[in-house]
Write a structure and sequence with these properties.
The chain has about 775 residues and is of the alpha+beta class. The chain is about 20% helix and about 35% strand.
C-alpha cells in the first residue's frame, strides 16, 4: 500500500507542477514559480536513486537497483521502467511543461543553493530521456508519444541530438511499419487511428524547430531549419483516408480485430466525428486484407465486408470472417476489442466470428502476409459486387487444403440488396459454420426446416475442460471458445434451412439467412457471450448473451460447401427460396426473389461459380438452358423471364434467355517496368506490362512475385503504350529489384530470390437493361 501511495503522490505532484507552471506563465506571480521549483528540485534530488521496475498488470512485480538500468529477465521492449510502469511514458511531459513555463523566472539564481536548474537538467531530465532513448526502438503504436516527449525535451533544454534522434525514428517508422496500401501494420483500426494521432502529435511537437546556429547532427550530418515533418509524411493523409473508407455508414470504425466497438468506447472516424456517411461505396484494402461491398445513400446504405486481414499484432483468429450492416445497424456482428476476462478466451477466437471452424480449433494467423490470397474483387454499382479470398495455407495448415470464401452483393442498397455467401472447405473431420447476429440490441433467433430439441452436451472437442476465466491472460487451448456457448438446441438437417435473427424491440428488423445443399448436417442454436453489452464490466459477462447459429458437418476427409444468402430484413423478406445444382465443377445458385402476387411468377437471379479453376458447364433451368464458361457469372431475370442484367467475370461465355456475353477471361503476362511517379490523379504508381489491356471494367492488378506471392493493386487507369500497356494503380509499388533479388520495403520486409514480375488481370463483361 505504501508503494501504491507513493506512486499516486508522484502523479499528484506531477499534475500540480504542470498547473502551477501554467499559472506562472500566465500571471508571472513568484509564488507559483517557487512551488514548481520546489517540486522539480526535490525530484532531481531523489530521482538518481529510483529503482528500475517491471510493473505489468497481473504479473509479479520485479525490481533492479538504481545502478542497473534493466530488470533481469524482462524483455527489452520498454517493460523496464523507472518513472511510470511503461518506459514509453517515462519522459514526463507534465514536468517538462512545468519547467518550460519558468524559463524566464528570475528566482532561479537565488533559489536553494543556486544550482537548481543544473541539477534538474543533469540529475533528472537528462537521465530520464537518455534512459528511454537507450532502448532498441521497436517502432510501435506507442513510440510516437515517446518521440514527442524527446522532441519537447530537446527544445526545452536545447539538446538538438534528442530532436534528431526522434525524427530519425519517426522516418524509419514511416518507411518500415506501414503496409503497401498505406495502412498501419496492425490491421485493427483503433490502433491505426492511435498511430495517426501519434504521428500528429510528433508533427506538432517538431513544427517550426530550428537547430542552434552552426549545428550539424554527428550521426547523419543533417541540420533542421523551420522543420515541418508534415512535408516528410506524404502517406499520412492516405492512411487516414483508408481508415475512413471502410467505416460503417454511421461512421464507426470497422470492429475487426482489436478495434473498440463496446458501448461507451465505440470509436468513430476522426475526420467525421459521429456524423453519418452520406453514401456507401465499395472499397478494397489489398494489403490490409479487407474487401468492403456496399452501396446506397442515407438510411438505405448497406455495408458488407470480407475480413481476410493479416499479421499477428492485435489480430483475431478470424480467417475469412464476414459482417453485415443495413437498416441503420450492424446485423451480422464482430465483437471487436475488449479488455475483460473474455478477451483472449472468447473475443479473439474463431468461434466468436462469422466464420468456419475446422476440427473445433482456432484458425491460424497469416503472420507474413503471404497466405491469404485475394482471388477476385469486382464492383459494378448497377447491381453486382464480388469478392473471393482463399486462405488454406495459413488458416488451418496441415488440415485444410481448401479454405475459400466468396461473397456477392446483389442489388444497389438496403431496400433490395442481399449477400450471397459460398464457403468452400476441404480437409479435417468437422466443419462448423457460425453466424452471430446483432451485438448491440436484444436479438431472437429462430430456424425453419429443422426440428430443434435440447442438447445436453457442448461443442467442445473431447479432452478440453472448460471453466469461466478469471483473467484475460493465459489463453486456454485452441477451441476453448466453444465452451462459452450454452443453452444449446440441435436438430438434423435434411433439406433447405431458414435462419432468422430479429431485434426483440423491432421484430420486423433483422436478417434472414437461407441455406441450401449442406445436408447431412446438424444445426445448433445457442447463446454466446455478448461482450459488447457487458460494457467492459467483468461482472456483466455471464448476464450478457446473444443467440448464434452453428451449422456443423462431420466426416472423414470432409469436403463442405456452405451455400447461403443473407438478406437484411426490414419488414417482409424478399427472397422466397434458394436452390443449387452442380455440373462439371460449376455451382449454379438459383435465388427466387419472390412475387408480389401469389399467383405470379417470380423474378429470379442466377449465380454461377467455378468451384476450382475456370471451366465450362451447361444447365437445364426453369427459364431454359444456361451455358457458362469461366470463373463467375450472374443473370437477373424479371417475372416474365426477361434478362434484365448479366455479368461475366473472368469468363469466355454466358448464354441465357436469348442473351449471350462473351469474353477472354482476362490478361496474364510479364511486368516490364514499374514506378512510383504516376501522373494520374489518385494513383501512386504504375506497371508497364507486355499485354494490350482494353479500356473496360477490370478487376485488380494482381502482381505476382518470383516466389508466387501475390500483391493486388486497385486499378486507377489504363494507358496504351506502343508495346503493351501502362496500368496506373492506387497503391505504391513498395519494392526494389536488383542483383537477382526482390526486396519488399513495406511491412513486413523480406527478400525474395528472383527479380521477375508477372501479373494477372480479370476482365468483366456486362449487360444492362438498356443494352
Amino acid at each position: 500500500m505504501r508503494a501504491h501511495a507513493d506512486y499516486w503522490a508522484r502523479e499528484y505532484l506531477e499534475d500540480k507542477a504542470r498547473d502551477l507552471g501554467d499559472l506562472y506563465f500566465l500571471t508571472k506571480e513568484d509564488r507559483y514559480a517557487r512551488r514548481v521549483a520546489l517540486i522539480l528540485n526535490r525530484f532531481a534530488e531523489v530521482y538518481p536513486g529510483y529503482v528500475y521496475r517491471f510493473d505489468y498488470p497481473f504479473r509479479q512485480k520485479l525490481f533492479a537497483p538504481y545502478a542497473q538500468s534493466r530488470v533481469p529477465g524482462v524483455p527489452g521492449d520498454y517493460r523496464t521502467a523507472r518513472w511510470t510502469w511503461w518506459a514509453y511514458m517515462d519522459i514526463s511531459l507534465d514536468l517538462l511543461r512545468a519547467y518550460d513555463g519558468l524559463q524566464d523566472w528570475p528566482g532561479w539564481k537565488t533559489f536553494a543553493d543556486g544550482n537548481t536548474r543544473q541539477r534538474i537538467e543533469k540529475d533528472f531530465f537528462e537521465p530520464m530521456v537518455e534512459f528511454v532513448l537507450g532502448f532498441k526502438d521497436d517502432a510501435t503504436n506507442m513510440s510516437m508519444g515517446m518521440w514527442r516527449s524527446a522532441i519537447y525535451a530537446g527544445r526545452v533544454w536545447s539538446h538538438p541530438q534528442w530532436v534528431h534522434e526522434a525524427v530519425r525514428r519517426y522516418e524509419r517508422l514511416l518507411e518500415t511499419r506501414f503496409l503497401y496500401d498505406g495502412h498501419w501494420m496492425e490491421t485493427a483500426d483503433s490502433y491505426a487511428e492511435q498511430t495517426q494521432g501519434g504521428l500528429q502529435v510528433v508533427m506538432e511537437a517538431a513544427d517550426g524547430y530550428s537547430d542552434p546556429p552552426g549545428y550539424a547532427n554527428p550521426v547523419d550530418g543533417r541540420r533542421f531549419d523551420d522543420l515541418s515533418l508534415r512535408r516528410l509524411t506524404s502517406g499520412y493523409n492516405i492512411a487516414e483516408q483508408l481508415i475512413g473508407a471502410v467505416r460503417f455508414p454511421d461512421s464507426r470504425l470497422l470492429p475487426v480485430n482489436d478495434t473498440w466497438s463496446v458501448d461507451g468506447k465505440t470509436q468513430y472516424w476522426r475526420q467525421s466525428g459521429d456524423k453519418p456517411r452520406d453514401r456507401m461505396e465499395p472499397v478494397l484494402l489489398p494489403a490490409t486484407g479487407l474487401a468492403v461491398l456496399g452501396g446506397g445513400e442515407g438510411e438505405h446504405q448497406i455495408h458488407a465486408y470480407l475480413d481476410y486481414t493479416m499479421g499477428a499484432h492485435h489480430k483475431h483468429y478470424d480467417a475469412l470472417s464476414i459482417g453485415l450492416w443495413a437498416n441503420g445497424r450492424e446485423l451480422l456482428s464482430d465483437i471487436g476489442y475488449t479488455w475483460t476476462n473474455y478477451r483472449l478466451h472468447w473475443a479473439t477466437s474463431t468461434m466468436a466470428h462469422n466464420a468456419v471452424v475446422v476440427d473445433g480449433g482456432n484458425s491460424g494467423l497469416d503472420r507474413m502476409h503471404t497466405g491469404h490470397r485475394l482471388r477476385t474483387f469486382v464492383v459494378d454499382p448497377e447491381g453486382l459486387q464480388l469478392a473471393s479470398v482463399a486462405a488454406a495455407p495459413t488458416a488451418y495448415p496441415g488440415i485444410a487444403t481448401r479454405y475459400r470464401r466468396t461473397l456477392a452483393l446483389v442489388g444497389t442498397d438496403s431496400r433490395d440488396a442481399y449477400l450471397i455467401d459460398i464457403f468452400q472447405v476441404d480437409g479435417g473431420s468437422r466443419h462448423d459454420y457460425l453466424l452471430h447476429g446483432c451485438r448491440d440490441a436484444d436479438t431472437d433467433a429462430s430456424a425453419t426446416g429443422v426440428d430443434l430439441k435440447p442438447f445436453e452436451g457442448t461443442l467442445l472437442n473431447n479432452g478440453i475442460e472448460f471453466s469461466l476465466p478469471q483473467s484475460f491472460q493465459h489463453p486456454n487451448p485452441s477451441g476453448f471458445g466453444f465452451g462459452f456457448i450454452r443453452n444449446l438446441r440441435s436438430g438434423n438437417v435434411s433439406g433447405n434451412l431458414t435462419l432468422d435473427f430479429r431485434l426483440r424491440a423491432q421484430p420486423e428488423s433483422g436478417t434472414r439467412t437461407l441455406v441450401t445443399g449442406v445436408e447431412p448436417a446438424t444445426l445448433f442454436v445457442g447463446d454466446a457471450p455478448d461482450v459488447r453489452r457487458a460494457k467492459e464490466i467483468n461482472g456483466n459477462l455471464e448476464k450478457s448473451t446473444a443467440p448464434l447459429f452453428c451449422l456443423q458437418r462431420r466426416g472423414e476427409h470432409l469436403q463442405s460447401i456452405f451455400i447461403a444468402t443473407h438478406e437484411p430484413v426490414n419488414g417482409k423478406p424478399k427472397i422466397k427460396r434458394i436452390d443449387a445444382q452442380q455440373s462439371n465443377g460449376v455451382l449454379l445458385l438459383k435465388v427466387d426473389r419472390g412475387a408480389t402476387d401469389a399467383d405470379s411468377a417470380s423474378p429470379i437471379d442466377w449465380f454461377a461459380m467455378a468451384l476450382d479453376e475456370p471451366t465450362t458447364a451447361s444447365f437445364s433451368t426453369s427459364n431454359g438452358p444456361l451455358q457458362f464458361g469461366g470463373d463467375y457469372g450472374m443473370v437477373r431475370t424479371d417475372a416474365a423471364k426477361n434478362v434484365l442484367n448479366a455479368w461475366l467475370v473472368a469468363g469466355t461465355k454466358l448464354s441465357f434467355g436469348g442473351k449471350t456475353l462473351t469474353g477472354r477471361c482476362g490478361w496474364s503476362g510479364q511486368v516490364l517496368r514499374h514506378g512510383n511517379d504516376s501522373l494520374h490523379t489518385g494513383a501512386q504508381g504504375y506497371f508497364d506490362i507486355d499485354q494490350n489491356v482494353e479500356q473496360k471494367q477490370v478487376g485488380p492488378f494482381m502482381l505476382r512475385f518470383a516466389d508466387g506471392t501475390f500483391w493486388p493493386f486497385n486499378v486507377v487507369a489504363i494507358e496504351r503504350l506502343p508495346q503493351g500497356s501502362r496500368v496506373h494503380v492506387r497503391e505504391k509499388p513498395a519494392f526494389q529489384i536488383g542483383d537477382g533479388k526482390t526486396r519488399l520495403l513495406a511491412f513486413p520486409q523480406r527478400e525474395i530470390d528472383g527479380d521477375k514480375l508477372a501479373f494477372d488481370m480479370t476482365e468483366v463483361v456486362r449487360l444492362h437493361r438498356s443494352q
